[in-house]
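Much of what follows relies on a compact textual record of a protein's fold. A complete example follows; check for yourself that the lines match position by position.
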Amino acid sequence: MIIPVNQKFIIPSGKISFDVTSRSHKWTRYFSPFFVGPIEMYDGYISHNLENCYQYSKVFSQHINHEQNPTQSYFDFAKKGWESKTPVKYPMGAWETPLFHFWDGKKLSHKEARKTIFLDNYVKAVKDTEKFKSLKKISEQYEEVYLIDFEGYNFRNLNMTYQDVLESNFTFGQGMVLSMMIDGFV
C-alpha cells in the first residue's frame, strides 16, 4: 500500500519511504513536477516542466480584460514561463491569488485544474517511465511504502477515497498522484 505523507510525518520504524520532492537527492526526485516534462499542452504550447505548466496556467487580475478573459499580456507572460527551464512555484509571488486557471480555451476552478492540468498531465508524463515502473515494483514488494511530498497527507486515516480527494478542497501533489497510479485509480 502506498501512503502519501508530508515531511512532518514520522515514518514508522522499519518501513520504506521515498522523498518524491525536488529536495530529494535520490532517483525519486524525478517525480517532482519541477523535473517532470516536457509537457505537451494545448494549441502547440509546450512547457519544459509540469510545475510551470500548472503555475503559468493561473490567470491573475492584471491579465484579464473587462469581460474577465485572459489578455494577450497573459499569454505573453504564460508563454515565457512555459518556455523557461527553471521551475517557478509562485510566478506572481506567494501572496497573489489567481482568479482561475486557463486551459485549452476554458476557465477552470482550482479543483478542475488539479485534475485537468496537474493530474492528467502528470500521469501522461510519468506512467511509462522506467522510474515509475521501478517504484511500482518496489511498492508491490512491501506492505507499506510512504511517499514524502510537500502536499502529502494520509488520506486513508481520514477515511477518504481517491474520489473523495479529487472532490475535496484538500490540496494534493505528486505523492497522491503516484499513489493513485500505483493503485490503478488513474
